[in-house]
Every structure is written in C-alpha cells, then in structure tokens.
Design goal:
Strand order of the largest sheet: 5-6-4-14-15-16-13-17
CATH superfamily of the largest domain: FAD/NAD(P)-binding domain
Structural class: alpha/beta
Shape: globular
CATH topology of the largest domain: FAD/NAD(P)-binding domain
Strand content: 25-35%
Number of strands: 19
C-alpha cells in the first residue's frame, strides 16, 4: 500500500511515521520544510484536563505514548512530566474546574483540587491573591515541539519513509465518484492508494479543488520567551478564563502564550505591542519576581479551529481521502495518539471508535 501525506507538521509526520512502522510505503509532500507551519511555534503544553470523556481518554493515551517515544524514536523529544496546574480567577471558572476534575478522576486521571492557600504553599513564587483555586495533574507536562517534530522525521526516515520538501500540492485528481487518484503539485503528479491531508491552514484550498469545504477559522496565539533563568517553574500553568499559559523551558526561558481573537488573524503573523503589554502585566501579576526580566523574543502562531474546538481527523468525501488538521490548539498533545489511530484507519479503511468524535462529517450538519 502506498500513501501520500500532505504536510510535515507534527500531526502529519505522526501519521506518516505510524504508517511506515506498519509497513506502508509513505511519501510526505511538504510545501516548505518540516516545522515551517504552526507545529514548532507552540510552547508544548501537554495535559489531560479536558471537559469531555473522549478528549480526556485520548490525551491520557497520548501522554503515555510521549513517555515512550524518545526510546522508540531513538531521539530525545524533551517530554517533561512536571505536572500541569490550571488556576481560576473567578467563581465560574472555579466551578468549571471542579466539575471537570470530578469527571477526570472518574476516568482514572490523577487530578486533584487545590485551594488558593494550597497553591500558595506548593508554589511560593506565585502571587495567589487573584487565584481562587485550581486543579493539578501530576502526569501532565511539557514537550519540546522542535524535538518532537524532528524526532518523528528521524523515525520516518529510519522506517524507509520518504519526504519531498519545497513541493506545493495544487489540487487533487479523482477517478470516479469514490476515489482520489493523485495529487497535482508544482513538481508533477504523484499517485497513491490513499491520501492524508495534514496541511494545516493550506488544507482548505486543497479540499476546494474537489468541491469539499469544512468550516474552520484561525485564532491568533501570541507567545514570548524571556532571557534564561535558574530553573524554578516545574509545572505548566494555565490561567483561566483568559487561557494564558506559562512554562519554563529546559534552557530556563519563561514561555508565555495568550490566545487573541482580535479579528486580524489573516493579516500576518507579526507580534503586537498590545500582546507584550498584556503579557508583561499578567506575568508580573502572578510571578512578581519577573519584573526585571527581559523579553528575548515574541512570536505568533495561527491556530486553525472548528466550532466545537475539536480536531478534524477522519475520512471525507472519498473512500481513500483522509484529513488530519484544524487541531484547535490540541495538535501537539494529541498527535501521538491521533498518529496511531489515523494510520490504523487508513490501512484498514475503518476508523476506530476513538476517532469518531473528530470525524469531518460532524461539521457538515
């Protein structure tokens, strides 16, 4: 069986690697170079503290796979299980975290609820005056996006998979009403038995070439990294309701990410002064010791999202056409599990039950 995967982000390479491991002949077509899209712009959050059963189970499976992946790929992906702390700054968010923690605990996740005082005692560097409480999952953590991306690439190569960089897919070619025959690129036409489109924001244009369209939108995520500091911040921290993430890299940089639905997402990826001002204010509110710390670099990622904030993974329109995109900010933390499930679905022609909540068809109703 020969499969073409379009897109060499973490999700696309995760699918391609798992196809190759299972004995499939794989060719990855990438418009620029591996990691040129959103994948390596993320800060690497990995957590299982979701509000529904299917996301929780998938995230737990994914983080367990991440724990084994460095050995499997013979490549250090930089996964650190330092825990994940979600904090609430208003009563509504606190009740939501409590409710979610109850569901998570029922599914075997080791989430614990912490009062504001307990958070302050555990993490004395945090100013908890505006924190009402939170939840903590010890098995969650942070992965290094560059390392995960290139670990999958190395693994794909080791399994005999091929990649063509600087190759832009222009359209799909079909034969009959049920099958895709080939992809047309700026370097020629490539035929295969099955096709996986994992081209991020470019997926929509490829689908339109055969009359398919799914409703998605872009949300702007702005991020920054500070100068390196002595390591002190073990868990990833998420502040609700604004969705700010705070972590410390293995090099000591403080990383901060804030989603910004400002209506300007299609006008480029330049960072804004407004973000820097907001991030500085919020970071120093929760971590007063950062007041004199210098910001080294800001950057932006555009996250493709769906109306239900779930990824699109499954078959659409044709018997041999599969999609893996619009990760809604969950790409890195779900990629290991989705890579396995998608590879098995493409080979067998049948999606596992775990993939059904992410099926493209749900967005057409």
């Amino acid at each position: 069986m020969r499969v073409i995967v379009v897109g060499a982000g973490i999700l696309g390479l995760g699918v391609a690697y798992n196809l190759a491991v299972r004995g499939t002949e794989v060719l990855v077509l990438e418009r620029q170079y591996p990691g040129s899209g959103l994948s390596v712009r993320a800060i690497g959050a990995v957590h299982s503290q979701w509000d529904n059963e299917h996301d929780i189970k998938l995230a737990m499976k994914s983080r367990d796979l991440l724990s084994q992946l460095s050995g499997e790929l013979n490549f250090n992906i930089g996964f650190r299980r330092g825990g994940y702390l979600m904090v609430a700054t208003n009563e509504e968010q606190l009740k939501r975290l409590e409710k979610n923690a109850s569901l998570q605990h029922s599914l075997g996740l080791e989430t614990i609820f912490l009062s504001s005082d307990e958070i302050g005692a555990r993490y004395p560097f945090l100013d908890v005056s505006s924190i009402m409480g939170g939840t903590f999952s010890r098995g969650d953590g942070v992965v290094h996006p560059f390392s995960l991306e290139f670990g999958y690439w190395s693994g794909l190569d080791g399994q005999g998979g091929k990649m063509r960089k600087s190759t832009t897919v222009k359209s799909l070619q079909v034969e009959g009403p049920r099958r895709v025959r080939a992809v047309e690129t700026d370097r020629g036409v490539y035929r295969a038995d099955a096709f996986v489109i994992a081209a991020g924001a470019g997926t929509g244009e490829i689908l339109r070439s055969v009359g398919l369209q799914l409703p998605t939108e872009l949300v702007r995520h702005e991020m920054l990294a500070t100068e390196p500091l002595r390591f002190f911040l073990k868990p990833m921290i998420q502040v609700n309701p604004n969705g700010m993430h705070i972590a410390q890299s293995l090099r000591g940089e403080i990383l901060c990410q804030i989603p910004r639905a400002d209506g300007q997402v299609r006008k480029g990826t330049n960072s804004t002064l407004g973000f820097l001002e907001e991030a500085a204010s919020e970071l120093t509110r929760f971590l007063p010791s950062l007041r004199q710390v210098k910001v080294l670099r800001p950057w932006v990622g555009l996250v493709e999202t769906t109306r239900d904030s779930e990824p699109i993974c499954g078959r659409l329109g044709y018997d041999n056409l599969w999609l893996a995109f619009a990760d809604s900010g969950k790409g890195i933390m779900f990629a290991p599990a989705l890579g396995e499930l998608m590879a098995e679905a493409v080979i067998s022609g049948t999606s596992a039950p775990e993939l059904l909540p992410y099926a493209p068809d749900r967005l057409l109703t």
